[in-house]
């Protein structure tokens, strides 16, 4: 209850209440009068108006604080005396004098409160406060100051109990502020105390946010910005929001709870007044980004995921700091930001699906890895780095409920191990996007005139997909079974390539190269082998296999397919002496030559097989 001032009417006195003469005062009355006289002496000695007239700059809260303690005690005694007089229905001049004296005391306390807050802006910065005190102590019922012993229901931040801060300037300032605040509140001057506190601390919060370069942008402004400009603002916001929540807002929460430890209601009200609006504005940046649908595209998904992940990671702190009903708008805005940004990510995933399905880029000669494959897989690798946020966003968003594909295509290692559906969600979505890519590649493969090249193209691209999955976080997402199944599919594509690309060469030799056949037939086999090998080689010198390991494996496989039969056939007729007269005209390749020519393949080099030296060729394949 605010102290009764001279402008407030005193309670009516019963007509029958006898007035006591000075000679008939009770002991309690004498004590009260003595308390008022002592308080008046102390309060008038520190009258702020007198200081102002005399241009003095005296400080009450300085040095050993003995004068400050006496002043606080005087104000407390004055308040107690006023209550006692009112309780007994007294209308003495002493009560009226006390009522006039109280505003003088409060004015001095207001001055001291403002000066301590203003002079300790650096000592009471949010960074030092948030690092000093344990976050776990928030909302705990504690009191570390002796004058608060016995109080109930106090909510404060627990300072360290090791004594390390006992002489720190920040500790001294907090103790002074707390004693002033409790004195003013107990005397009924809560509004005046809170007004000063909020004014000073709000200016500090505003300055800090200005230093962090936090901007308030609506979605219309965002949609008009160049992406590189907006992206830089997003990066700035990502840094700022972490500092704001974990340092600025936490520090302000700690300070409010420490200074106004006697009242949770006052503490939370001050904190709300200082931080609520700026916190709402900060999270509205993310909300407005999510609303800016005109600027959304797959390439911008990762900035959106950064925003979503940052807010998600901060959510425990947001709930702990902004738990009070007065601060519910902050939590509501943060939740709205998560929802809006999550919706934007889902939109961009759909855009990616559409882009894959509608891609019309050309298929380049040679059957190498298509740019679409590189783009999509690089995209998915980055997506795998955001497995947690993506799973949260798409957990309740099925891929395609009308898909004709079997359910087991969309299985995942996490689902198979019985984990929750959100953990499997990203595996299902990545599997779906890869499937769309592979279907598109199937259609692009059909553009090639040569069937063998089509299969080589499919093998190259699927091998690239599987390698990217295996060597990134996607390997954990998709699981070993998925990798094994698609590796097997790469091998099937390569088998078909070998069959379509080299069957003509193989069939030019007799099925059994050891059987006896007429000389003319031998000549025909060699001629046919020369023609078919040269034709296959000429075509395939422009074909590529970008993966070195796969390239070597294919060369060895082709050499194994051709070499043994040719070597047996060649050696049989050479030993029989039948080749001596034909060799220059009919037999163009010794078995060793074939290995040298095969080593030329899939390197994007040009040329055709001749009998010239192979000294400049790559390492030959052993037949």
Structure description:
- The protein is mostly helical.
- It is built from 21 helices and no strands.
- Residues 3-23, 134-167 and 605-620 have low confidence and may be disordered.
Task: Please outline what is shown here.
The protein has 623 residues and is mostly helical.
Straight-line N-to-C gap: 103 Å
Give the mean pLDDT.
81
Mind describing the biggest β-sheet?
none
- What ranges have pLDDT less than 50 throughout 5 or more consecutive residues? 3-23, 134-167, 605-620
Which secondary structure elements does this structure contain, and how are they paired or packed?
Blueprint: H1 27-45, H2 48-53, H3 66-87, H4 93-119, H5 126-132, H6 169-186, H7 190-211, H8 219-224, H9 227-259, H10 264-291, H11 301-321, H12 328-358, H13 371-384, H14 387-394, H15 413-416, H16 421-445, H17 451-470, H18 474-507, H19 519-540, H20 548-575, H21 591-598
Helix pairs in contact: 1-3, 1-4, 3-4, 3-6, 4-6, 4-7, 5-9, 6-7, 7-9, 7-10, 9-10, 9-11, 10-12, 11-12, 12-16, 13-16, 13-17, 14-16, 16-17, 17-18, 18-19, 18-20, 20-21
Quick tags:
single chain, 623 residues, mainly alpha, 65% helix, rod-shaped, disordered N terminus
